[in-house]
């Protein structure tokens, strides 16, 4: 193992830069050269490779986003595009690819592995919805970011006795909503995995009033119902006036929480350790609080 290429792919996740640093740190110890392809899988196709060194990764380990940048690239689902990617990586003498990303990126990594090219995937998505892993880079930061904003909202809400419906990210997953809802003491948390009715939401607001709470807070995951639609439904069916708020990309922004930095560095180091032992065709994960790996074929 002499030369590896890394991509960050899909939605950016705080902790991706820490993972790049972890990879480079361990690779440098092992005399392995590291290159990054810019903007995810498309960077491989466009042969847009940049050398990654301690000098250009260390300063960013504490910074959110991804210095390699990322673009969603649906064309990568096509077999011919995947084959081209493998040919290009071979042409550039890359011995392995490390993919840092979410669900869709994992699928791409699994497909490339079918061409017998060595691939390791590192879980990174604020949604924390990748099969098999208890944690993914960015999740802890997104939960903290959303909680911090709702905490700010709470002081003004309490002063006016307002009702807020706050929408957090999670297209297919209620993971962020569940954690945030708990952290802020939401009156109700709505997630895509569980059906709900407007009546139940109104009942939760009735209870909040009965309990003399100074304000009410409903947290909804974007994949369950938008806060604008929910606001309309509540106002149509009750006497309540509701203030909707979409938290949006602020959840993915800013610097990684400590947990994501540490996890990022550890994932990066483990990826290189495993490649060195010729273990690939795998996806790293957190299981029982420890890092281990599943076969990438699980993600086809
Ligand atoms: O990265 C996951 C995620 O943040 C989802 O929670 C959200 O639905 C989506 O990405 C937003 O993607 P984009 O930034 O491409 O609009």
Any idea what the radius of gyration is? 21 Å
The biggest beta sheet is recorded as: 7 strands, mixed
Shape call = elongated
CATH topology of the largest domain: Rossmann fold
The spatial strand order of the largest sheet comes to 3-2-1-4-5-10-11
| Strand proportion | 15-25%
Write out the distinct hetero groups bound to the structure.
Answer: 6-O-phosphono-beta-D-fructofuranose
Distance N to C terminus: 26 Å
Helical content (DSSP H or I, runs of 4+): 40-55%
What is the averaged pLDDT score? 98
The total number of structural domains is: 2
| CATH hierarchy class name of the largest domain | Alpha Beta
Low-pLDDT residue spans: none
| Element-by-element helix/strand order | EHEHEHHEHEHEHEHEHEHEE
Specify the structural class. alpha/beta
- Assembly state: single chain
**CATH architectural group of the largest domain:** 3-Layer(aba) Sandwich
Determine the number of helices (DSSP H or I, runs of at least 4 residues): 10
Domain Phosphofructokinase: 3-275
Subcellular location: Cytoplasm
InterPro entries: ATP_PFK (IPR022953), ATP_PFK_prok-type (IPR012003), Phosphofructokinase_dom (IPR000023), PKF_sf (IPR035966)
Main location: cytoplasm
Secondary structure elements and pairings:
Blueprint: E1 3-8, H1 16-29, E2 33-37, H2 41-45, E3 49-52, H3 54-57, H4 79-91, E4 96-101, H5 103-113, E5 119-123, H6 139-160, E6 163-168, H7 175-184, E7 188-190, H8 198-210, E8 216-221, H9 227-237, E9 243-246, H10 258-276, E10 282-287, E11 290-295
Parallel strand pairs: 1-2, 1-4, 4-5, 5-10, 6-8, 6-9, 7-8
Antiparallel strand pairs: 2-3, 10-11
The site of 6-O-phosphono-beta-D-fructofuranose (F6P) has 10 residues, from loops.
Keywords: ATP-binding, Cytoplasm, Glycolysis, Kinase, Magnesium, Metal-binding, Nucleotide-binding, Transferase
Family: Belongs to the phosphofructokinase type A (PFKA) family.
InterPro entries: ATP_PFK, ATP_PFK_prok-type, Phosphofructokinase_dom, PKF_sf
